[in-house]
Each structure stands twice: as structure tokens, then as C-alpha cells.
Amino acid sequence: MPDIRHRVVISAPLENVYEAIATTEGISEWWTRDGARGDSSVGSKIEFYFGSPEPAAVMEVTELNSEGEVGWKCVAGAGEWVGTTLTFHLTRNGDETAVLFTHAGWREASEFMAHCSARWAYFLLSLKSLLETGKGTPFPNDLKF
Amino acid sequence: MPDIRHRVVISAPLENVYEAIATTEGISEWWTRDGARGDSSVGSKIEFYFGSPEPAAVMEVTELNSEGEVGWKCVAGAGEWVGTTLTFHLTRNGDETAVLFTHAGWREASEFMAHCSARWAYFLLSLKSLLETGKGTPFPNDLKF
Lengths: 145, 145
Prior knowledge:
2 copies of one chain form a homodimer. By secondary structure, the first copy, chain A, is an alpha+beta fold. Helix content of chain A is 25%, strand content 34%.
């Protein structure tokens, strides 16, 4: 099955990068300010909002390890996303942190998947910007494309 | 074999997007200003430079169709790139142009491939910026990550 995989290096300590990915407060500063609602502990669900009354995606948190692993499974939302898994694998790289992001389990290499691939790269650069400058570009302040 | 696939929508006529991808003059404004050297006709080769005396990649032009297709095959350069194929498929979307980019034929889903995936998304957004604002972010003015 086709996967989206991106690697981005961020000039920030691993602990800070982890905090921005593992908590709803962090996520709202780089992915969506419209709402990352729920409990971000393992086994709980987080609802992600992008301007609609219904969440665009609901993720079950499947892994949280402050050494550098965050895992989600999409349990509701955009049809092509349901059943896919998302992981953020962080590694120390001197004073920097490398983020290896994988969105796996797509049923087909659709145009929507290609759209999401470019969108994920954009939001990972938003995460980088947040950690390096204090300011990300989460929805609704994101570039539309 | 794993592929990189991105889709980006650009507010510009297809003809302009095609010109920016199909010509070395265009490419130098969004991918690398350090040098896209060679003849961009089918069967010819283009050398792409990124700050080194040797080209980082040499592409044979395999397809050029002003209806919206540009194809390259990597014939020399970074080891993992050699033998891979790159295509830009353009479609009209009202006043906009959708770019479906594919970098196919990778031997394995390596961390370098994940790095290149994020880099390609960044440079496709540079292409978008070039066409919408007149200014891209080609090497060496690109964000490093």
C-alpha cells in the first residue's frame, strides 16, 4: 500500500518538538487552530477541525513515547483517511531534531493522497517554523493549494 | 516500488505553468538558480547544479507536450535518483492549473526519499509562488531543512 513519508530537520531540542506533536495545545499552533479537541493520552481520541462543525478527522492516539514517538490511527473523517496510520518518529541530530513522518495504509495512490502529501510537507514546515521562530502557519492561516 | 506524489493547485494559466517546468529558464526560477544547463528538448539532457562543480542530477527529457506533460529520467547524480523518473502532469481547473508531480521508481522507501519528498513539496510551492507572485524560492535562496 502506498505511503506518504517526509523527513524534516528542525533546529530545536527533541523535547520541544515532541511537546508540539504530542499535545493538543502544541498541534493547534502548527496544524489547526480551529480545534484539536480531546485527550491526547494513549487510547484516547483527538478530533481535528478545519472550519466545519464536524471534525475533518478523528484520531485515536496509539503511541506516545517522549523518547521520540507519536502514533495516531484515523478512526473517522475523510473516507480515504479512515484506517490509515500516522507516525512521527523523532531522532536527535546534534542540536537539531529530525522528524520522520509517515502517513501509511492508503488504499490507492489517489490524487487526494498526492494533495495530502504536499499538505503534510507544508504543515511539517509550519511545525519547523513554530519551533524555530515561535510562529507556525496552522489552519486557517495556512496557504491554500 | 515507492513513489513520491504531490498535487498542488496554482492560480495561473496552464501555458505559463508548462513554460516554467519545460524550459531551463523557467526551472532556474523555482528549483535551482545555480544552474539548469542543457537543451530542454526531448532526448536531450539537462544538468542541475546545487552549489557543487558537479551536477547533483542529470535528467534526460523523455516527454514534452504543451497540453500539459513534462517527463524526465534521471541518468546520473545522487545514487538513489539514478534510474528514477519524474513527471509533471498539468490539468486545467477553471482559471487554475493543477500540477500532479510524481517521482517514481525508488528502490526503497529510504530516509533520503522522505527528505526528497518534503523538498519536492517545498519546490512545488516555490513554483506556485513564482507563478502567482513573480518570485520563487530556488536554491540557493531556499529554506534548508
